[in-house]
UniProtKB/TrEMBL annotation:
Gene Ontology molecular functions: serine-type endopeptidase activity
Name the UniProt record assigns to this protein: Serine protease SP24D-like
PANTHER family (UniProt xref): AT26814P-RELATED, POLYSERASE-RELATED
Keywords: Disulfide bond, Hydrolase, Protease, Serine protease, Signal
Encoding gene (name): LOC119644743
Length: 253
């Protein structure tokens, strides 16, 4: 049993990616239509897609902390230079359309580490102009009950080493209880929402930071997979309801 637990732990990986390392799509997903996910953005580092995110105000985007920083040689979490980051909003095409806006400030959770408190905010240089294609999404107002369906979206991989989609993908997963989650992956915390799925479905590299939504609210931020994309293990998302006070405080909501 101890050996099995160790193998699970070492196979927990983030969902971050870059186009240079084949950022592809949601596993088993469908192609989104224009205006279906007007809150979804592509976070770009040095011009290349790396993560997703959610518009929560005209000036602020919610994403994952591991999307906006890295561990240095001493193991200290260090933020990327915001000058290297832009977002594309208002387009399901990661290559064109919508608007590109520079990031001027990164605010990552001060207690981020080991996929816990994996949330961050991006302040934009110019305010977004809301339209049919660009809209904010409300933050989670309730704890989502186990068994409920959740919609995820992103430009992440179809599978490990899979093809790169040009267009935004989406899929439907279901919420696991904390106890069921603990039995299947090495986390036992209210800070994570566990999303179950069939094999060959779910989030993958390039989906990091992107939204999980329920009843028109963002309830999760894509964080990690266990055992590879589309495995039999649930995907881990930072729970927005757990972090909602922190998000509101730092975004002036």
């Amino acid at each position: 049993m101890a050996k099995f637990a160790f193998l699970v732990i070492v196979s927990v990986v983030s969902l971050i990616s870059t186009e240079g390392t084949s950022a592809t799509r949601v596993v088993g997903g469908e192609t989104a239509t224009e205006s279906q996910f007007p809150y979804q953005i592509s976070l770009r580092r040095n011009g290349l897609h790396s993560c997703g995110g959610s518009i929560i105000t005209k000036n602020v985007v919610l994403t994952a902390a591991h999307c906006v920083g890295y561990d240095d040689d001493d193991g200290n979490y260090t933020l990327h230079d915001p000058k290297t980051l832009t977002i594309r909003a208002g387009s399901i095409d990661r290559f064109m359309g919508g608007v590109l806006v520079r990031v001027v400030e990164i605010i990552a959770h001060e207690n981020y580490g080991n996929f816990l408190n994996d949330v961050a905010l991006l302040r934009l240089e110019d305010p977004l102009i809301f339209s049919k294609l660009i809209q904010p999404i409300p933050l989670a107002s309730i704890e989502v009950p186990p068994g409920e369906n959740i919609v995820i979206s992103g430009w992440g991989r179809l599978e490990h080493g899979g093809d790169i989609p040009r267009y935004l993908q989406w899929n439907t997963l279901s919420v696991l209880s904390r106890s069921d989650c603990k039995d299947r992956i090495p986390y036992d915390t209210d800070a994570i929402i566990c999303l179950d799925h069939d094999v060959d479905n779910g989030a993958c590299h390039g989906d990091s930071g992107g939204p999980a939504t329920y009843n028109g609210e963002v309830v999760g931020v894509a964080g990690f997979v266990t055992g590879g994309c589309g495995s039999s293990y649930p995907d881990g998302y930072a729970k927005v309801y757990y972090h909602v006070d922190w998000i509101k405080k730092h975004s002036n909501l």
